[in-house]
Amino acid sequence: MPITPQPGIMQIALYKGGQSTLPGHPDVLKLSSNESPWGPSPEVGPALAQAAQTLNRYPSTDHAALRAAIAEVYGLDAERVICGVGSDEVLQFAAQCYAGPGDEVIYTEHGFAMYPIFANAVGAAPVKVAERERRVDVDAILAACTERTALVFVTNPGNPTGTTLPEAELVRLAEGLPERALLIVDGAYDEFAAERDVGLRLAERDNVLATRTFSKLFGLGGLRIGWGYGPAAVIEVLNRVRQPFNLSQVQLAAAEAAVRDQAFAREVQAETLVQRARLTEGLQALGIACDESEANFVLARFADEAEAGACDEALREVGIIVRRVTGYGFPEALRMTVGRPEEVDRLLSALSRFKGAA
Ligand SMILES: *Cc1c(COP(=O)(O)O)cnc(C)c1O
Q1: H-state helical runs in 30-159
Q2: Domain range spanning residue 295?
Q3: What sequence ranges are listed for the domain Aminotransferase class I/classII large (predicted)?
Q4: Are residues 202 and 274 part of one domain?
């Protein structure tokens, strides 16, 4: 018998991140990974320097200080917060603890590419459910549930759609799921939505886990910190598979400083909404369709795949990288991260030249 990976592993295609360089362009504008153009809070630098003083010491295993800060800021029970290497790690814990061979893991048509990877990694079957007009369809999810459904992943706001479901719809989903299924509300873009903290409120139920991240609004994608909030019983289970030292003291210190600087977070949030409105209006004025986004990116829809491809090429020629989202079911669209005012200007003028030349 040759050395053989576990069932499901070979179904996983390697994840492709957003490109960050373009040969020959010194001044690349990267709008492909929904990173914050504003960077992290100014409080993060000093916190990192301080943490660097004690790198010979192992970090805290229980993340008590960071969990307390999160609980204080969001009005939560610190005992029900779990921190991970990005929210990705918390999502992975959930798959590892609650799904396995013979189980089904539901995700939606335009949902995050990591969900089927997490399902395959534990030998469960990923089940993709159709969305309706780029919006999660609760009835379709409920219809797809079986006694084998272990997990249901929903992104709210969606990536790359930028759309949300009203809280009542998510409540209806949680209430309608089979008894053994855990609903995961991935709130990576929650801070940019009109209705905030929906996942955290849902996580007061015994079958909902909410996840949040420091990678987007807080500008710390490079450090890898995220967290989850859920019923005590679920968090207790997830902590069993979490490595005791999964987060370094550098990560813990940066995240705590970032979450405590709510003034900075609110500024970034407000400015993102202003620039998002400018980008949306600019696209629409150029005849490029897009939904009202509730995230820090806009999904620009072109006439067809050929036009989206040509636009992507034209942007690259002037040093701008956006994201093709063919793998998310949108061959005709490009996902564009909301940048600083001058970056939005640069993107819109490049798009205008593209449209003018077409
Ligand atoms: C960016 C993103 C995340 C965040 O991942 P981290 O591991 O916290 O960096 C989670 N879910 C979705 C849908 C995302 O787009």
Answers
A1: 44-51, 64-74, 86-98, 114-121, 138-144
A2: 16-39+263-357
A3: 27-351
A4: no
